[in-house]
Amino acid sequence: MSTGRSVLIVDDEPTIVEMAKLILQDEGYTVFTANSAELAIKRLGVITPSVILLDVNMPDQNGYQLCSRIRMDYPHVQCPIVFFTGNNTADHLRMARDAGGDYFVIKPFSAITLVTGIKRGFMAWGKKRRS
Predict the structure, then answer these.
(1) pTM to 2 decimals?
(2) Any idea where the domains of the chain sit in the sequence?
């Protein structure tokens, strides 16, 4: 099911998920959530989001692994993947890019930072597709 202007938030921290959900609903997104990598994979069997917000640190699989898995095993998911991370070191940003991520939002985040991060994710993803 194509879901138009929608986002899948994958994060195991309920407070982060709720905050991001409220911000993105105010921006007109339909929001789907998953608190684990496996639940995210199940959701991607049913929905095709226009963007994925993906936490780096999760209990069952890290975000880099999940991003790589989505890019390799789910070709119907043609959308930017924006990482949520508290780690803004060059190594972490490189790992996000190498896994197939398009942008990142540093935690903690504000509404402006989150929305801007998604827009930049769309821009980066568009550039990759044109190359």
Answers:
(1) 0.94
(2) 6-110
